[in-house]
Amino acid sequence: MGLQIKLFLLTSLTMVAFAANSIFNRLSLAEGEIGPSGFALIRVLSGAAILLFLVSFKGPEKVPVKSTPAHKKPKINLTSILSLSVYILGFSFAYVSLDAGIGALILFGGVQITMFVGALYTGEKITRQRWFGSILAIAGLVWLLAPTGVTPLLFETLLMAGAAIGWGVYSLIGRKVENPLVATQKSFLFAIPLVALIWFAFPDQIELTQRGVFFAIASGAITSGLGYALWYSVLPRLDTITASVAQLTVPALAMMGGAIFLSEPITLRFLISAALIMAGVIIAVKKR
User: What's the total number of domains in the chain?
Assistant: First the structure.
């Protein structure tokens, strides 16, 4: 029971970090404090820096690697690097216009679908209870995106959907890593050239401010670098469906943060969507 409580708390802390990323992005981009490509580049640079410091501080002899010889370095996973880059870039550019709560709902709804497909592909057993909970959670996303006068912008929605696929693939890879901290550090480090290329090709037209840089660094170093390393550490102890539906709690957290820090409206449509998603999460994760 003690281990299960610890796992629950660590997973909850990770979900809070994910929601904070949405808030930091909107606090910067919505107020014109920084542009999306600049935010993405500073985010990945600061994330790589804090992770490199932690790996160096612990030392190679103190970094446990399961079933891997001490002299053998973890391999570089190109798919992990590409998926992380797609997620970070799509996330930043989509949040130029999307509200924090709606953006998080699109993101983690897409993550749910991506990881669900991944579970089916790998032959993971899915009970009827989990089928029902997952479908209910996805129905909440469909309800939000159904045609209406306040439907999220199409281009930004597509960008966030691309970010969702990237993060879903990144999470699926994370379930098999042997050293979460080193794997996360390498992904961030080698994602820098890809993100920098987009920054060079699509430079921001907005002048940087101290506030924008501060939120980008906080997002990269704390809620991304440390948050993702923590996520990779708990993923091997969660099955794919539990890991995917747990992330659907993030939109509700982002919605509350958006209302508190950004004065974003909480509509009845959003509340119904969030309620369906939360109910689906509880049903899918709850043991019989």
Answer: 1
